[in-house]
Amino acid sequence: MKDRTLLMIPGPIEFEPAVLAALGAPTTSHIAPDFIDAFGQALERLKDVFLCPDGQPFIVAGSGTLAMDLAGANLIESGDRALVVNTGYFGDRYGALLERYGAEVTHVRAPVGGRPTIEAVAQALEGADYKLMTVTHVDTSTGVITDVKALAALARQHDALIVVDGVCSVAGEELRMSEWGVDVALTASQKAISVPPGLALLVACPRAMEAFRGRKTPVANYYADWNNWLPIMEAYEARRPSYFGTPAVNLIWALNVSLGQILAEGMEARFARHQALSRACKAAIAAVGLRQVPREPTFAASSMTAPYYPDGVAATDLLPRIKAAGAVVAGGLHPEIRAEYFRIGHMGPTNLGDILATVGAVEAGLAGCGHLSEPGAGVAAALEAYYADAG
Ligand code: PMP
Questions:
Q1: How far is the CA of 136 from the centre of ligand 1 (A)?
Q2: How distant, in Å, are the alpha carbons of 52, 93, 249 from that of 37?
Q3: pLDDT reported for residue 390
């Protein structure tokens, strides 16, 4: 039987058939003229998706952690101070990564499901001379979204570079790199960019490239060194062949198809669609009586929803039942609450039908665990929230 289970985790996600077809097409040479053209176009389109027309795009084979590494390795020199605005698991990862390059890292933290206040970050920035600040736009371990616009303004005031980990946000959440003054934003292919895992994607603004060019010591990571990749990206954008490491040819073909689809939808429409679907999902989760990890509705991301299990229900009770009803959702990730909550991804090509099917599967799972008072309440709430928004 065809597996028709919906993959509704916060990455990887369900992909468009045209993207998968590009991935499955016969592999071309990495210097074939049509591939050079597709790579060049993907680089140009990346700047449009990141809303950063004067940025320097990088497309490198690897996962999102490599994208984090590209920023860390190229912008940090031993002894630099870095501030991590920490909203969960991926903030911890960024701190550990920067320490590998010799940074003196300070974290500004909040309780699980919270986010540091702007005042707390401002106070930290005033306390020392930071070269760089990292912000996780959406921490996938909590579903908490940060206020990147306000944090970028703070970084500017304190002359610190701001690096945004947008792995769970870019092409789903509103992110305006140039307008907001974000120096580096990065992501991976498998989430809202909507391409199977395997590409690290990053856009660096002129201020970040200037800081890189001003380094006094060599980049301490050979594969991640922009000195190796910058000429390659420039060559492909200028439609010239070049080589440093063999590009992930099929993934780049697929990326170019997906970026074309994203831009055809339009960034504003895409942000609005993610917000409407998220409101529908969150209304449903509230209607079936589950609390969510983000402590305030304004802290909750649009790309995912993180509900707590009802009292007395464990992951092993609920998640297999949700799957049996047709949707795969993810368990917890944040070490402090790992066993207490689950995660639903709704980004990229997700539509209202996917949300309703997933909410229905969650209701079926809850019913199977003896925890549903009013079957259909979640689906009804999702529809109501969606159409109330649609006005
Ligand atoms: N940052 C965030 C916010 C993420 O969600 C993830 C992946 N879940 C990563 C970084 C790391 O990406 P990858 O797993 O592709 O290395």
A1: 10
A2: 21, 35, 12
A3: 58
> From residue 293, how far is each of 5, 82, 204, 217, 300 by CA, in Å?
25, 27, 32, 42, 8
Instruction: Give CA–CA dist 201/251, Å, rounded.
Output: 12
Question: What span, in angstroms and rounded, lies between the C-alpha atoms of 76 and 85?
Answer: 17
Report how far ligand 1's centroid is from the alpha carbon of 312 (Å). 30
Q: What is the pLDDT of residues 151-181, one digit of tens each?
A: 999 999 999 999 999 999 999 999 999 999 9
Q: Kindly state the average pLDDT of the residues 106-116.
A: 98
Report CA(45)–ligand 1 centroid distance (Å).
Answer: 22
Mean pLDDT of 263-272: 98
* CA nearest ligand 1 atom 8, residue: 140
56, β-bridge pairs: 204
Residues with CB under 6 A from ligand 1: 11, 63-65, 90, 136, 139-140, 165, 167-168, 188
Residue nearest to atom 5 of ligand 1 (CA): 140
Q: Whose CA is nearest to atom 2 of ligand 1?
A: 167
Q: What is the mean pLDDT of the chain?
A: 97
- For 316-355, write each residue's pLDDT tens digit: 999 999 999 999 999 999 999 999 999 999 999 999 999 9
Whether 13 has a pLDDT exceeding 60, the answer reads: yes
Phi and psi dihedrals of 307, rounded to 5?
Answer: -85, 145
- Residue 150 is given by DSSP the state H
Distance 142 CA to ligand 1 centre (A): 13
How far away, in angstroms, is 65 Cα from ligand 1 center? 6
Q: Which two tokens stand for residue 372?
A: 């549903």
- The alpha helices in 117-266, defined as continuous H runs, are 118-127, 148-157, 177-180, 206-213, 226-237, 249-265
Which runs of E-coded beta strand occur in the chain? 6-7, 56-61, 81-85, 104-108, 132-136, 138-139, 144-145, 161-165, 184-188, 199-204, 304-305, 327-328, 344-345
- Atom 12 (ligand 1): residue with closest C-alpha? 64
The position carrying tokens 């401002």 is 122
- pLDDT band, residue 1 (cuts 50/70/90): low
Q: Is 315 exposed, middle or buried (0-12, 13-18, 19+ CB in 10 A)?
A: middle
